[in-house]
Amino acid sequence: MDIVIVGQWGAPPKIREEALGNCLPPKRVLEKVPEGQVFIVQVCPTGALSLRREGDKVKLVLIPEKCINCARCKENCDAFDYDPENVGVAVLVGGKMSNTGKGPRLGRVLIPWIPAIPPRYEEIVTVVKRVVDVWREHAQPGERLAEFIDRMGWQRFIEMVGLSKVHAMYQRMPDYVRTYMYFRQRSEAWPRFRDGI
Amino acid sequence: MEYRIKSRELQNFLILQTEGVQVFFLKDLDLYVVSHFDGELYRLGFADLRTRVGLKMRCDRLEEEAAAATELKDIPWERLRLKVVFTLYPLNCFEEGAEGALALKINIEPHRLMYDWVKIARAILSSWSEQYVRWLRERFGPVDAVKIVGPGA
To answer: Is B121 within a domain?
Structure first.
């Protein structure tokens, strides 16, 4: 696939306490078992879920700094709620299945995260359209995006697509600017992505 | 050239990287990251300056001798496997031994770069460091391990 769009959650989930009981062992068992033996703690690949014992109470807490928004907790327990409005995508380019050129290969990440804002998803469309435009304008007849990028060079391709500004913007952005509402509110201070390229 | 950056900036630097070696110092985490990209694979090395291990071993042999390769299941995602190498990056050399920073080496394909590898590497380091130090003790004898913690760390 020349251009791949992979959906990603934008922020760690919120824990719905009232539903959490279904995913944890009974309270009297929970008080005795080590943290590492609790299934929902085990499924987190980065150790972002932890049991906190306060007196006789045992609470499951999520450490946002460790969370990579992978949603494995959500797959195993319905008590984890991701914000459906705070979603984004990663854009990958240059993958292909055919044997032409250097053969099949996987794509390379062009943008690690860009917000998906309905209904028109303009940020994503702008990036994809720009990639297609650059390819259509400069590629040789029959040349796939992967070979085109190889011929141009990765840095040159990024410049042609105009993504240097977007990457520079990412580096200035605090993490919490990723949230949907904040992105909207700060649209004047932080130009939207389609204005950046 | 060494880039002194914040951890959240690393992903973009890696995406922009062309073939070659780049060194990053993540100043908010005291973490050195070395990235060797050959066009098909990122060979990433993370050296955690806050976790140091002393061994009775010559400095120039520390990184190779202390290397432990293993394969982790379900990391970073379910049904995925990740080959990792734990080792020590020499920081201080003494007559009788050496002190090294806990280090992790992983290889990733360019399409996996959309994940936050700093968080994943830190998670691996923190959850496997005890087991690795135990392995070092069994193999090389007494180990002097220090983890620097606190707000100033």
So the answer is: yes
Contact list in B for residue A8 (CB cut-off 8 A) is 114
pLDDT at B77 exceeding the cut of 80: no
The answer as to whether B152 is a domain residue is no
Domain spanning A17-78, CATH class:
alpha beta
Give the predicted TM-score (pTM) of the model: 0.82
Q: Which residues of B touch A74 (CB under 8 A)?
A: none
A155 vs B5, B18, B115: nearest CB: B18
Determine the number of helices (DSSP H) and then strands (DSSP E) in chain B. 3, 8
CA–CA min distance B13, chain A (Å): 9
Domain boundaries, chain A: 3-10+84-196, 17-78
The predicted-structure confidence for A144-160, as pLDDT tens digits, reads as follows 999 999 999 998 998 88
Of B9, B77, B126, the CB nearest to A47: B126
Residues B13, B3: contact at Cβ < 8 Å?
yes
Q: What is the pLDDT of residues A3-62, one digit of tens each?
A: 999 998 888 899 998 888 888 888 888 878 887 788 888 888 888 898 888 777 788 899
Count of CB contacts below 8 A, A vs B? 73
Residue A70 has pLDDT above 50, yes or no: yes
- Determine the distance in angstroms separating the CA of A46 from the nearest CA of chain B, rounded to an integer: 5
C-alpha span between B35 and B45 (Å, rounded): 7
Within a domain: residue B115?
Answer: yes
Is B122 contained in some domain? Answer: yes
State whether ipTM is beyond 0.90. no
Q: How confident is the model at residue B95 (pLDDT cuts 50, 70, 90)?
A: confident
Closest residue by Cα to residue A110 from A82, A132, A84:
A132
Question: Phi and psi at residue A160, in whole multiples of 5°?
Answer: -65, -40
Name the DSSP letter for residue A70.
-
CATH superfamily of A3-10+84-196: Sulfite Reductase Hemoprotein, domain 1 (3.30.413.10)
Number of domain units in chain B = 1
CA dist., res. A125 & res. A167, Å (int): 17
Which residues form the domain of B57? 2-147
B113 contacts in chain A (CB < 8 Å): 108-109, 112
